[in-house]
Amino acid sequence: MKGVLLVNLGSPASTDPKDVKSYLGEFLMDERVIDLPYLLRTILVKGIILNTRPKQSAKAYSKIWWDEGSPLIVLSEKLQDKVNQETSVPISLAMRYGEPSMKNGLQELYDQGVTEVLLVPLYPQFAMATTETIIVLAEQLRDEFFPKIDFTVVPPFYNHPDYVTVLSRSIIEELEKIDYDHLLFSYHGVPERHIRKSDITNSHCKIDGSCCQTPSKAHQFCYRHQCYETTRLVGEKLKLKEGTFSTSFQSRLGFDPWLKPYTDRTVEKMAQEGIEKIAVVTPAFVSDCLETLEEIAMEADEIFKENGGTEFTFIPCINDREDWVKTLSRWIDEWALSK
Ligand SMILES: C=CC1=C(C)c2cc3[nH]c(cc4nc(cc5[nH]c(cc1n2)c(C)c5CCC(=O)O)C(CCC(=O)O)=C4C)c(C)c3C=C
Ligand SMILES: [Fe+2]
Q1: Which end of the chain is more exposed for a tag (fewer CB within 10 A), N or C?
Q2: What residues bind Fe(2+), as annotated (predicted)?
């Protein structure tokens, strides 16, 4: 029997700094997120980051937390419920870190007789800190606990016409309500090193911009290329004028170089250069979360206005939009009917 495991990133159990600390501990000790040798990673995460960051992050989470819980989890549950109503295949939801865990999600499916699982990482673009770590954990869990389960993985859908259509619609619906000068596509950042590590050719990636435009099999695993492609395809679909939209990367952590341009500096510069009205969309995220509701809708808005900008519009993620639910359900049904 076939079943589906939707997997998102995860959130702390509550905004209590203790829960935030335990969530960040699991998340940041993942070798595909902070990719340092174990000893160094332990010193950095447990010796430094976990002593200061949980308090600061807990404050940020408190600003966006809903009565029902973490926006990311609540929105993922809504998506799961709606997809469940559209398809007859059993659908479980799991988080890569925290609860509901991937092990429980697989157990839930297995208890219903499922042995063929469609694994759906809820990330449009591939990154070793997101898609890859989900696949690796799924395989570890299979080897250890569910030897009868076979996986099919939904590939990154950054350029899938159905996804581009849904994302474009979600953007145009907001743009039609406002007057704006510039549309910024802000993606979660990753350290540049991650991009080089994922280069399967070991020679293509230059992080200088030009490589992402030159066709290469490296692009199958290149987060930067895939982000720029999503922007380009939406720009094409919405017939956006050259110069009225651009791409940036947010949420950097630590001192090593992350993908540039950085969103906070971009927003600041745009305001200083006289751009008065901007709209920001965050296509690395399927569900709204701390990084969209706090870092963009609150912090970036503040930076923009402090530097002379007048209107800042945050465009919500595709969340549980009906056309996204229908698209995901169709992908699932097509897989369920195959073979
Ligand atoms: C080295 C650190 C990090 C990498 C690499 C990274 C990549 C990455 N993350 C997401 C999606 C999300 N990240 C979120 C929160 C978050 N991310 C990091 C660090 C890295 N992310 C931290 C420390 C945090 C916690 C919050 C904080 O303290 O600032 C979230 C939000 C979760 C929520 O509960 O709302 C998401 C979603 C992607 C897509 C990505 C690589 C492409
Ligand atoms: Fe992150």
Answers
A1: C
A2: 188, 291
- In the chain, where the domains are located: 2-156+322-337, 161-315
Q: What is the reported pLDDT for 339?
A: 72
pLDDT, position 284: 98
Among 45, 63, 125, 188, say which to mutate for ligand 1: greatest number of ligand atoms within 8 Å of CB: 188
Are 245 and 222 in contact, with CB atoms under 8 Å apart?
no
Res. 287: pLDDT tops 80: yes
For the Cβ of 95 lying below 6 angstroms from any atom of ligand 1, the answer is no
Q: Which overall architecture, per CATH, does domain 2-156+322-337 show?
A: 3-Layer(aba) Sandwich (3.40)
Going by CA atoms, what residue is nearest to atom 28 of ligand 1? 57
Cα 70 to ligand 1 centre (Å): 14
Q: 291: annotated binding-site residue? A: yes
- Counting ligands in written order, which one lies closest to the CA of residue 186? 1
Average pLDDT over residues 32-54: 97
CATH assignment of 161-315, among 3.30.300.30, 3.40.50.980, 3.40.50.1400, 3.30.70.1150: 3.40.50.1400
65 Cα to the center of ligand 2, angstroms = 17
**Residue 290 C-alpha to ligand 1 middle, in angstroms?**
9
What pTM value is reported for the model? Answer: 0.96
Evaluate whether ipTM surpasses 0.90: yes
Q: What is the pLDDT of residue 246?
A: 98
Say what the pLDDT of residue 210 is: 84
Fold matches, 2-156+322-337 and 161-315 = yes
- Check if 253 has its Cβ closer than 6 Å to any atom of ligand 1: yes
